[in-house]
């Protein structure tokens, strides 16, 4: 039976189109769309690779990385609570935050980030870089700084390292905790190794972060109002607000950082107490708003009762207080070996270290702090000293067994 002419013509044309790879007129727009889509996808892939690399190119430093970090939690660690949790440890410099973060980081489920805001503070135009600087801080400048802080902290808490700023991944402070040390090591490898090696390092750090269900960020550069915003934005975030006797903080900061003379210290004391007062006012309502998500810890109480307070911290964070953690806390606070430098987290006697400022501070600074921080004292249970004799006589207490929002601190 003969095939109709129309069908033969159609088949002939189809055969012709297949030979020329052009296709019928009605198919040409579809082919163009497919080719355009392929080009778009290729461009997107190149952009993703660029973003992954853009945060890695910083100048290397001559620092040796000696301790590899665990890539995944141990089997026993995952028996606790495998859900994703975020922890923000907020404090002031020289208030015991390094010791506290080291205690929490001892748990194998925790991925820790050490001072991720350091480079932001250095480059932001609205931040005072030291007590000798004078700067009129406007609300707009403070809001800008807070917003950038929140963005950086959320990057770390979500393991979104591909979004990091080039300066922030090269932050040398990151080397001070095992988790963030991986990222800092990647910044070194970028110029010392091949691009492929740098990318492998970067992906390894992100993988390690994702495999740990608990993320801990420790920062002494985060203000109270920003804490309130962070808690509202991140419902899975828990906050530890670590405080210390302002006299101890100011004395220790001056020795470690500023080396101020007495008159300069008095001026800095006024500014510090004002900052402390503002932060406390912003954070205090959060204890009523989020009673199960925020906890205040006095460094002195941790120093005096390290095992008890550490176990309470672990309970608040939903972590198991294992025998390994208990041994670590004991060795870090009571073992009798002497610390070798100012920023060490191990203390021969943590109680003695917490009150060592009483032997070093000048009494005029004590008087100024007692005056400027009087309202802070009342809220946190610190006591003024009336004479130099009381300052050096340890029978006179500088704190009470206080409560804060109904909880012993």
From TrEMBL:
InterPro entries, sorted: Gal/GlcNAc/GalNAc_ST (IPR051135), P-loop_NTPase (IPR027417), Sulfotransferase_dom (IPR000863)
All residue ranges annotated as the Sulfotransferase domain in the record: 86-377
Regions that span the bilayer: 37-57
Name under which the protein is recorded: Sulfotransferase domain-containing protein
Lineage: Eukaryota, Metazoa, Spiralia, Lophotrochozoa, Mollusca
Keywords: Membrane, Transmembrane, Transmembrane helix
Pfam families (alphabetical): Sulfotransfer_1
